[in-house]
Amino acid sequence: MTSVRRWAGVWRGGVYLLVSLLSGIVTVLALPVLCVPRLARPWADRHRDRAGRLLGLPTASRSAPRAAHRLAGAGPSTGRDLLWLPVHAVIGVAIGLPALLCVGNVVTGVVVTTLWWAFAPEDRPRPFVDVPVTGWATALTLGPLQILLLLALAYVCFPPMARAHARICLAVLSRSTAEQLADRVAVLTRTRADVLDAHGAELRRIERDLHDGTQARLVAIAMRLAVARQALSDDPRDERFLEELLRDAHEGTEEAMTELRGVISTVYPPILADRGLAGALTAVTARCGVPTRLSIGDIDRVPAAVEAVVYFAVAEALTNVVKHSRATTAAVRVSRTAGRLSVVVTDDGTGGADDRRGTGLAGIRGRVLALDGLVDIDSPAGGPTTITMELPCGS
User: Which ranges does the record mark as transmembrane (predicted)?
Assistant: First the structure.
């Protein structure tokens, strides 16, 4: 199993190095265009995300700069984004070319071993730079030997070379402590204002629901009971009239209770108190119109405010999947690492989700940011869509 993981790391490192070579060449060719800050920022963000994924950094540390850019403006980060362009143009090409040569010569070894006979003598691939292949004995000796030596080189060198590039990337693009603090203050100031607006709107909605619905029904019940009381004092023998009034009052009471439960459920879903977060999410995924797989790790006790945010966010995300994504399957994964709760919602739909176009994603982001959490939405055109949320939940 260790060997399999090691070769998986070699594969990831090789892909990372080859993509870095390609993006380094693109950076050289498109340098005048990428020097525009508006274009340099997403280019730098893309490399920061790649580096973070390779090094196994949490999503929070990768998505924080992007959220800060949106809410706090460019600031000093623009200088780092522009600095990354020449740095990556140099190290991306320098560190990617050896990987390309290694992979290319492995392919050459395979061709030499199996297809040497299909080439004219003067056009045959030559292993070990310039060793001629004269027959099967030479091909079956030099070809596999070249493949084995280069695979051994890749096994030893690809992972550390890829990690070195990723560390350089994060070192150039990382923010100072003062900048991180300034960005965090800007984010919290913005989200605090959003939360206050949302809180006021929610209070007005609850007041309107109670006034127009529950209160109106309770007034009607009180009036029916008053009429029944008066009828009872006037003519106790009119049982049919009294029965109708009491039946109407009873039905009105049940309807008022149903409406009241509906209002309460929008504040804090009763299912969370009854079944906990795991049970509530099980119910949400079971009701989803798209087959949804739920995976919940050992999350221990989660604060009530975090439970409510996760519940509403997952419910809204799955609603979006049903309404907009045209997906055939979805998945929800909840896990906890130390003091952070991670929630990942994925679907195999058409992608293109954007919180700037509504679709409920803005509400999800607002709920999560209000608790000092982080949200990352990865939804390229054509799919798939991945929404990652991380919330602090104590240690």
Answer: 15-40, 89-119, 139-158
Same domain? 216 vs 329: no
Count of C-beta atoms within a 10 Å radius of residue 374: 24
Structure tokens at 317: 């995300």
- Pairing outcome for strands 292-296 and 330-337: parallel
Full residue range of the structural domain in which residue 90 is found: 2-175
Give CA–CA dist 20/97, Å, rounded.
10
Domain co-membership, 335 together with 220: no
- DSSP bridge pairs for 295: 333
pLDDT 10s per residue in the chain (395 long)? Answer: 567 888 888 999 999 999 999 999 999 999 888 888 888 888 988 898 899 888 887 544 444 444 444 444 445 577 888 889 999 999 999 999 999 999 988 887 787 778 767 666 666 666 665 667 766 777 777 778 888 888 999 999 999 999 999 999 988 887 767 766 777 677 666 666 666 565 556 656 666 666 666 666 676 777 766 766 666 666 655 566 666 766 777 777 777 677 666 665 555 567 777 788 888 899 889 888 889 999 988 888 888 888 888 888 898 889 888 888 888 999 999 998 878 899 999 999 888 887 776 557 887 887 887 777 888 888 888 888 999 999 888 65
Report which residue type is found at 230: Q
What secondary structure letter does DSSP report for 394?
-
Q: In the structure encoding, which two tokens stand for residue 226, read together?
A: 């008053």
Same domain, 116 and 105: yes
Yes or no: say if 26 and 356 are a contact pair by the CB < 8 Å rule: no
pTM: 0.51
**254, 275 in Cβ contact below 8 A?**
no
Q: Report which secondary-structure segment, H or E, holds 128.
A: none
Residues 41 and 109 in one domain: yes
Q: Clarify whether residues 152 and 238 are in a common domain.
A: no
- The type of residue at 216 is A
How far apart, in whole angstroms, are the C-alpha atoms of residue 224 and residue 247? Answer: 10
Per DSSP, the three-state class of 347 is: strand
- Please state the domain count of the chain: 3
Contact 327, 319 (CB under 8 A): no
How many other C-beta atoms lie within 10 A of the C-beta of residue 306?
Answer: 20
